[in-house]
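Input chain follows. Return structure tokens only.
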Amino acid sequence: MTPSRRNPAPEVVDLLDRLRDKGMRTYPEVGVLRARGIVESSRWMQGERRDGVATRDLLVGGAAGRLPARVYDPGVGAGAPLVVYLHGGGWVTGSVAVADRPCREIAAASGAVVVSVEYRRAPETPFPGPVEDALAATAWAAEHAAELGGDPARLVVAGDSAGGNLAAATALMARDRGGPTIARQVLVYPVLEPPDPVAHPSYAENAEGFMLTAADMAWFWAHYLDGAAVVPEAAPLRAPDLAGLPPASIAVAGLDPLRDEGIVYAERLRSAGVDVRLREWEGLVHGFLWMAGELPQAADLVSWIGDELKGATWASR
């Protein structure tokens, strides 16, 4: 059977069968603390850790104090792009530790210095705390680019899932607040607004059975917003004007509830005059960047991200 939006890739079928045999449950069923533990213990799906990328841990500026971060340096030297990476996990789970192997791969594939940020998470710190952390950490990285080994003129915000939401929102907020100047945004199956099955049929098509469920996303949003209004800083797809945003590279998965909002965001960015590169991985599920040991398509996604950064046209300053 050929993988498509309705037919998962054979490797996906096998992985989902094994996860069901292990008793896979939805996040609302297990609660916040167990959900975090499950995500932390999922690194067995990521495969072997890449060597040859230097790392160091440090503290970066956040919105309410300093935040832990990990820097990945592939050794390219001066002039390397500087990528602020924001991990996925529904704003509730995930960590720098969980995103370690993917960040190593991205640094190696792109030749960029990657700074992975441990932003505060919901429900302890709901919106706007995480996105304010993301913006503050991005500004800190721009100010300290030389010591990080990157080029502030090639500043990139990137993230997967909820991290893609934070990256997109950081780009919006940087535009509206006068900086820092972001050269590119890389959004991997991003969350861009609360669940809307009418506007985004992928929510109904992929509501359950393909890793991330519609119920999971409703649970994540409830923790993130904690009763706050849905404003563009939380839901970038709700922004009335997307003009003046940095060029975007957007990846979506065919069997993901979030697929259509990523596609719609790409279309709206293009309509606003923003350069956009969009690619869909048919037959793949949400989160596959973190499954390189099980799904070979993850390597293709990393390669695509690397090519997007290596092939980017950087504005001269």
